[in-house]
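Dear colleague,

Thank you for sharing your sequence with our group. We've completed the structure prediction you requested, and as agreed, I am returning the results in plain text so they can be pasted directly into your records. Please verify that the sequence below matches your submission; if there's any discrepancy, let me know and we will rerun it promptly.
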Amino acid sequence: MPFRGAGQAINDLIAAHVKAAWLGPTALVPHYEVGTLKLLAHSGSKRAPTLPQIPTLEESGFKSLVLDAWYGAFVPKNTPKDIVALLNSEMNRVLKDARLLGTFAKGAVEAVGGTPEDIGTLARADSEKYARLVKELNIGIGAN
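Please find the predicted structure tokens below.
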């Protein structure tokens, strides 16, 4: 059942209108911590450092199912290289800030940082992976 966002899905989970949902950890962690929701598995390649008791999907028997979620910053293609370098440097610096890392950790988000080439490689790999999955699983677009 599609939802307009995590808030609506979480409300329906808590009210038992739906039995399960696939959502990012940030919106779920507060509800997990107070016991209104149970987390079954983490889709990343390794357990979340702030939720070590939650197994990965692979550990739960879903072999080769890794769906790492990530956030990135992008700029227009023709942005001058010196501007890209400055933005990248500042973002990597900010991603080391203890207060930001604490906020991220509360939502089971890990700050990584890296180079523009790193995120380009990651974005291309994910695009290829999801294109392959759409084809292999015969996923189409349209109303049910």
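Summary note from our side: Residues 70-144 form one domain.

Kind regards,
the structure core
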